[in-house]
Amino acid sequence: MAKSDLVLDPPSTPLPGPSAVPVAEKQRIFVASQWQLMWWRFRKHRVAVASGVVVIGFYLVVLGADFLAYADPNASEAQRSLMPPQRVYLLDGWAFRPHVYAVKGARDPQTFKRVYQTDPSQRIYLRFFAEGFEYRFLGLIPTSRHLIGVEPGFDASRTLFLLGTDVQGRDLWSRLMFATRISLTIGLFGVTVSLVLGVVLGGLSGFYGGAADTLIQRVIEILRSIPTIPLWMGLAAALPRDWSILQVYLAITIIISLLGWTELARVVRGRFLALREEDFVVSARLVGCTQMRTIFVHMVPSFMSHIIAATTLALPAMIISETALSFLGLGLRPPAISWGVLLQQAQNVQTVALSPWLMIPAIPVIIVVMAFNFLGDGLRDAADPYGR
Amino acid sequence: MLAYIGRRVLLAIFTVWAISVLSFVIIQLPPGDYVTSYIAQMASTGSVVTEQEAENLRIQYGLGQPIYVQYYKWMALITQGNFGMSMEWRRPVTEVIGERLWLTVVVSVAALILTWVLALPIGIYSAVRQYSVGDYAATFVGFIGLAVPNFLLALVLLYLGFVFFNAHIGGLFSLEFQDAPWSWARAWDLLKHLPIPALILGLAGTAQQIRIMRANLLDELRKPYVVTARSKGLTEATVILKYPVRVALNPFASTIGYTLPYIVSGSIIVSLVLGLPTVGPLLLKALIAQDMFLAGTIVLLLGVMTVIGTLISDILLVWIDPRIRLENT
Questions:
Q1: Contact B142/A at CB under 8 A
Q2: How confident is the model at residue A5 (pLDDT cuts 50, 70, 90)?
Q3: Which of A184, A342, B181, B188 could be stapled to A361 by a disulfide with Cβ–Cβ 3.0 to 4.6 Å?
């Protein structure tokens, strides 16, 4: 701890005994950078840290969706319609050899529904890093390895149904992986657009005050008193039917963020108002910094952490909005896959009652939204490490 | 106080104007104009629109003229109570919407009331018995309420109701009352069906309000005046309810303005899942069929209702808490 000895005005020599530790601790705090203080503060919030790990995990799924999937998410097959999730048996005798039983489909002669029966005599063993369909890992490296697969000689997309299949017989597990990619990135893009709008408008509002402030504040109040879902629905429904997936994706992002920037603008404005009269800002102005320099070199870095926290808290709303719109059939449209698109199949009770696994895509929605909320809470507390 | 209310009313008028412009944009967005689609629609069912009729309609809606003239003509018609024709139903929009709008209001207001009735006592309890089992339970339910989108909650409840009770918990009326004229029996039937949709819609708001109430009350409970009140020998209930709760109520109440738009918004999508006879399913159908006058009118009316509701709650708030008058004037 040579560094801590350099601290000005150490409270005399460290006393022997129990109080020595707190003094060393204090000295460590004196020399720590702001980001380090925030990290220490954040670390104390256990739930937030755990949530952060969950969020990172989900974004890893975004990166490696095709590696985690084992079947082509759009390969439909009427013969495999609405198959229930398969049970995975971990042990074969006493050896750890995960396997599933082969499934046979037939049509019930009375109800004409497809029924499926497992055939315990035919075991299909699972393999890790197995061969499957070809893709480019991270969009770069061509490969055909997948995390899960079946033993050679079998085709994973015909034998493995970890979470069952949907009405068109597409594998739900693989679709869920690709849906995670779309749903989570649409949230990121949406929040970026909101962030730009929020920082610019909130900044104008807080830095200049006066007429600009009044105008922007009234606009925010008006936007916040309008029910958003009907408006989104109206705007989303007007998107031309012949647009490509990418165009619809971008348009939905913009529609969602057009109404979602208000909270971020409020936070930014509050920070600007608080900082405007601070000594370091006044002195920056007095030594002749341009306005741009004052704002971006001196003010913005000091509330960067607040922006990050507010952004994290804004993300779940974006994700829910996209899910809601796609669920209604007004957001992303098949063949695009998102959580909302998957949940669209679970819209009516009859289907859900017979095939409850179609509701599985709701689980990641809930987990991600909760994780972002806890993470945002923790970040918000940590953003101001000098507070109580 | 009058100045405050005056400013609120002014803002409400601006908001209504903004909503009307947005609704007009929604009506205008799909390609083609109203009269052309109307003629095509009529032709597809074998009826013929004469050239004269079409011309009259074009003049009525100012088609072919600048966009602001069209907006002005549309607004002028609306102020006369003419919201246009629904293309799909071939009836005036007002007739198609009918009582659905009022049922939307009933559901939303019920959710709002439920939010308050639940959040207030639970919030107080959570603060007074901080870190008790009940507090943790409330916090947990609160987080669930915030994290689970209400339409998913509706879906799950519907599924559970179906599997465990073999009952359909959706809808607002029993079968025999679905198309019956209004009567006390029908109103009672509506009341019996209200709690579930109201709970689903209100849960997120309730969760948020509990957190606000708890945080505010905790701040107040630490203040010296509470100690003074206690040392004077007041009963615990009087100490808490008479002073800190009243102070903590203010930030709690001021969020009501943002709760209503949120609930109305949610009611659209929850209605679809639960099959409620509100404007929600109608709006979706209208949008998919590009029945734009119907869709635009629903967006407009929903917006206006929300603004009026928020305005009323704002005014009630000033009436309850005099400090707001002083802060804002």
A1: no
A2: very low
A3: A342
Contacts of A343 in chain B (CB under 8 A): 152, 155
Residue A3 has pLDDT above 50, yes or no: no
User: Nearest chain A Cα to B289, which residue?
Assistant: A237
- A interface with B, Cβ–Cβ below 8 Å: 218, 221-222, 224-231, 233-235, 237-238, 240, 316, 320, 323-324, 327-330, 343, 346-347, 349, 352-353, 356, 359, 362, 365-366, 369-370, 373
CA distance B50 to B41: 14
Lowest mean pLDDT among A72-86, A179-193, A318-332, B123-137: A72-86
The CA distance from A84 to B257, in Å, is 45
What's the confidence (pLDDT) of residue A92? Answer: 77
Chain centre distance of CA A207: 32
**Higher-pLDDT residue of B125, A277:** B125
Q: Chain B, 283-302: which have a CB under 8 Å from a chain A CB?
A: 283-284, 287-288, 290, 295-296, 298-299, 302
Which chain A positions have a beta carbon within 8 Å of B298's beta carbon?
Answer: 230
Helix (H, G, I), strand (E, B) or coil at B35: helix
Cβ–Cβ < 8 Å for B238, B87: no
Distance from CA of A347 to the nearest CA of B (A): 7
Contact B284 A352 (CB under 8 A): no
pLDDT at B327 over 60: no
Average the pLDDT over A2-20 and give the result: 46
pLDDT, tens only, B252-309: 766 766 788 888 888 888 888 888 888 888 888 888 887 788 888 888 888 888 888 8
The per-residue DSSP string of B284-317 comes to HHHHHTT-HHHHHHHHHHHHHHHHHHHHHHHHHH
Query: Has residue B93 got a pLDDT over 60?
Result: yes
The CA distance from A376 to the nearest CA of chain B, in Å, is 13
CA distances to A240, B60, B247, B280 from B76, in Å: 30, 10, 47, 26
- Identify each DSSP E strand in chain B by its residue range: 85-86, 91-92
CA distance B1 to chain A (A): 20
Of A230, A324, A356, Cβ closest to residue B149: A324
Predicted pLDDT at B329: 42
8 Å CB contact between B236 and B282: no
The pLDDT assigned to A237 comes to: 81
B249-260 core/surface letters (b: 16 or more CB in 10 A; e: else) = beebbeebbebb
Angle A170-A176-A178 from CA coordinates, rounded to 5°? 95
What distance in Å separates residue A248's CA from the closest CA in chain B? 15
Residue A136 token pair: 């480019």
- Predicted ipTM? 0.80
The 3-state DSSP class for residue B85 equals strand
Q: Helix (H) and strand (E) counts for chain A?
A: 16, 4
The per-residue pLDDT for range A237-252, each reduced to its tens digit, is 878 878 888 888 888 8
Rounded Cα distance, A328 and A344, in Å: 7
Distance CA A145, CA A131 (A): 5
Q: What residues have CB less than 8 Å from A278, skipping those under 6 apart?
A: none
User: Which residues are bridge partners to A146 per DSSP?
Assistant: A130
Tell me how far apart the alpha carbons of residues B16 and B216 are, in angstroms, rounded to a whole number: 33
Cβ contact A366:B152 at 8 Å: yes
Match 């601070």 to its residue by tokens. A278
